From TrEMBL:
This is BBSome complex member BBS5 PH domain-containing protein. It is found in: Cell projection, Cilium membrane; Cytoplasm, Cytoskeleton, Microtubule organizing center, Centrosome, Centriolar satellite. Residues 25-79, 154-208 form the BBSome complex member BBS5 PH domain. One of its GO terms (biological process) is cilium assembly. Belongs to the BBS5 family. GO terms for cellular component: BBSome; centriolar satellite; ciliary basal body; ciliary membrane. GO terms for molecular function: phosphatidylinositol-3-phosphate binding. InterPro entries: BBL5 (IPR006606), BBS5/fem-3 (IPR030804), BBS5_PH (IPR014003). PANTHER family: BARDET-BIEDL SYNDROME 5 PROTEIN, BARDET-BIEDL SYNDROME PROTEIN 5. Keywords: Cell membrane, Cell projection, Cilium, Cytoplasm, Cytoskeleton, Membrane.
Length: 343
C-alpha cells in the first residue's frame, strides 16, 4: 500500500495540502478564525483536524500551509492569552519532534467559540489510545485468557494453530490469526511471546524458500523496524491458501485503511456536510494580498501608549473617532475584505 506519512511527518507550505487526503483519512473537525502566530503572524486561517493529523492553511495566502502528524506531537496545551485583535482569547501550543528536529507552534483563536480547541485534544487522545491499528507491537497485552482482544471495526477471518514462527533457530510453535486490520501470532508455550502487525506496516507478503523449507515471508515498513518475518505452514497447499487470503485482505485494506480514530462531533451538526474536502472555499489568489492587510497593518503599527489619542469628527461614520494616522482612510479599515467584494 502507499506509504502513510500523514501522521508521521511535518510539512510546510505545500499548496492545497488540505485537499490531498490519504485513503482512509477523514476530516473530523474544522475550526475557523485561527492564526498561526509563530509562523505567519497576522494571517487568519483555518484548521482542519483529521484522524491522522492537524492542518492549518491561510485564508489570505494559499502558499502558507502546515501539516503536523499526530505521531510527531510531543506535548500540546492551551493557554489564555491577551491579543491585539481580541482582548482575551486562547492559544494552542504544540511541541513536536520529527527527524531529529524539534518545532514549537502557536495557534491563536480569534473565533467566537470559547472551547474552540477542545476537539483537537479529544481527537489526539483517540489517536494515542488506538496504536494497535497502526503500529507493530511485540510482546504486548493483546490476549485475555487465550483469546484475542478484538478491536473496534475488527473482524477475525481465520485462526490456525500449529504455525511456526521462524524468528529463532529452532522455530516456535503457535497460533496465527488473520483479521481485516492486522496479523497476529502468539506462542503456545508463552502467550506473552506474540506479535501484532497491522497491514499499514506491511511492505510485502511473499512465499519463498528458507532454511526450514518454503515459508510465508512478511516484510515490515521502515517505521516498523524493517523486520523480515517468516512463518512455516504445513501442508504447502494450506500455506498457498493463507498467502492468497492475506494478499486479498491486504489489497482491500490498502484501498480503505482503518486507522482506528473515531470522533463524533456532536457540537457541529453539520459534520456530514461540514467539509467535503473538494469543496473547501478558496480565495482568489489575485486579490488575497488585499484581504485584511491594511486593517492588520494598522493594528500592528499602533501608536505608543505614552501618547494620548486625538479625537476628530468623522463625516463618513457620523461620530467622533481617534484621528487616523497618515496613509490610512476609513475605507481601508472598514472594508477589511478589500475592493474585490464590491466588484
Amino acid at each position: 500500500m502507499a506509504k502513510v506519512w500523514e501522521d508521521r511527518e511535518i510539512k510546510f507550505d505545500v499548496q492545497n495540502i488540505h485537499k490531498k487526503l490519504h485513503n482512509g483519512e477523514r476530516v473530523l473537525d474544522v475550526i475557523d478564525s485561527v492564526e498561526d502566530t509563530k509562523g505567519n503572524a497576522g494571517d487568519i486561517g483555518r484548521v482542519i483536524v483529521t484522524n491522522l493529523r492537524f492542518m492549518w492553511y491561510s485564508l489570505t495566502n494559499p502558499k502558507f500551509t502546515l501539516s503536523i502528524g499526530f505521531f510527531c506531537i510531543v506535548t500540546m496545551n492551551a493557554k489564555n492569552v491577551i491579543s491585539r485583535l481580541r482582548a482575551n482569547t486562547e492559544a494552542l501550543y504544540i511541541l513536536t519532534s520529527s527527524t531529529k528536529q524539534r518545532f514549537e507552534f502557536i495557534f491563536t483563536d480569534y473565533g467566537t467559540n470559547p472551547a474552540h480547541f477542545a476537539s483537537i485534544f479529544e481527537i489526539y487522545k483517540k489517536y494515542q489510545t488506538t496504536t494497535l491499528y497502526r503500529e507493530l507491537k511485540l510482546r504486548s497485552a493483546i490476549l485475555t485468557d487465550g483469546q484475542l482482544n478484538i478491536l473496534k471495526h475488527e473482524q477475525v477471518y481465520k485462526q490456525m494453530s500449529g504455525i511456526y514462527n521462524l524468528s529463532s533457530d529452532q522455530g516456535n510453535l503457535g497460533v496465527f490469526i488473520i483479521t481485516n486490520i492486522r496479523l497476529v501470532w502468539y506462542a503456545d508455550a508463552n502467550e506473552s511471546f506474540n506479535i501484532s502487525l497491522p497491514y499499514m506496516q506491511i511492505i510485502s507478503v511473499k512465499m519463498r524458500e528458507s532454511k526450514y523449507g518454503l515459508a510465508l515471508v512478511i516484510q515490515t515498513a521502515h517505521s516498523a523496524g524493517n523486520y523480515v518475518l517468516g512463518f512455516r505452514i504445513d501442508p504447502q497447499e494450506k500455506m498457498e491458501e493463507i498467502f492468497k487470503e492475506i494478499s486479498s485482505l491486504y489489497a482491500v485494506y490498502s484501498e480503505t485503511p482503518i486507522f482506528g480514530v473515531d470522533y463524533d462531533n456532536t457540537v457541529k451538526e453539520k459534520k456530514e456536510e461540514m467539509l467535503r474536502i473538494d469543496d473547501i472555499p478558496e480565495i482568489d489568489e489575485a486579490t488575497s494580498n488585499e484581504i485584511n492587510s491594511k486593517f492588520t497593518m494598522y493594528l500592528r503599527e499602533g501608536d505608543s501608549n505614552s501618547r494620548r489619542a486625538t479625537l476628530s469628527y468623522c463625516k463618513e461614520l457620523g461620530f467622533a473617532i481617534e484621528k487616523l494616522r497618515d496613509g490610512f482612510s476609513i475605507k481601508d479599515l472598514w472594508n477589511v475584505m478589500g475592493d474585490a467584494e464590491e466588484k
